């Protein structure tokens, strides 16, 4: 097997974050160096608690969790609308025994990425929430950029409308200033925006399949996935919920399932009307080099099949459990 890809998962659990984490936990191709929850779908105390609970659910209490920023860089928090009061829908997980590390997410990112830069073994950053933690770390020590192989991010909307406002996707709107700092860093980005994630709808029939194969996490997975159903055929073209965050993990496991186009990406962080809107310079109008590959096409059936195979590992079929 190839050398595992070293990753850090920056997240705001969050139902789809949870599915992404559970998929990553049983994927030996990934060496998860740390999980860094941030204020996003829920206030920080809940995203940290949810991350700890999901590590216990997934049997991965070996992975350190570092609490991140409790607010966006400048704007007030806006929180998510589709994750329920706890951030995990109706699912009640046991009070976590696992504790977050004493080190903050920002200090962890600085230390880990500095080490990665020194050793010339850069780490892949999986950003599936507002990008506050990494932006603050970059502001404190910009040189950590050399320790990042690339950023695989869920966020933005380029040829799609927004999902929180007419123009903005949630992660970008929640902290547009952080996104601006990250987009200006020249670190290579793979952008899984709504353009990609809306192609992969988790439909009711999929939920039944996931419940059937996922063994000891079956109840939790079906609860989470049922809660995730938007039931908005007009907006999404079908029942179900868009599989946003898990696509970041699937991209790492099977990049051949995705097609992308190069662009320079920007985010509106000043105008109120279009705050958080992401803009793609596809044709070099900005005279800046592309900094992103924007995923434009997804083999959605194959993504679902891969997710089913991975989550079936919680039934003891194979994998690292
Ligand atoms: O717009 C979708 C994104 O916002 C996902 O990351 C979801 O978890 C929320 O954070
Ligand atoms: Ca998220």
UniProtKB/TrEMBL annotation:
GO molecular function list: hydrolase activity
Keywords from the named record: Glycosidase, Hydrolase
Residues in Inosine/uridine-preferring nucleoside hydrolase domain copies: 7-304
Origin superkingdom: Bacteria
Gene3D superfamilies in the record: Ribonucleoside hydrolase-like
InterPro entries: I/U_nuclsd_hydro_CS, Inosine/uridine_hydrolase_dom, IUNH, Ribo_hydro-like
Protein name (Swiss-Prot/TrEMBL): Nucleoside hydrolase
The species this protein was found in: Paenochrobactrum glaciei
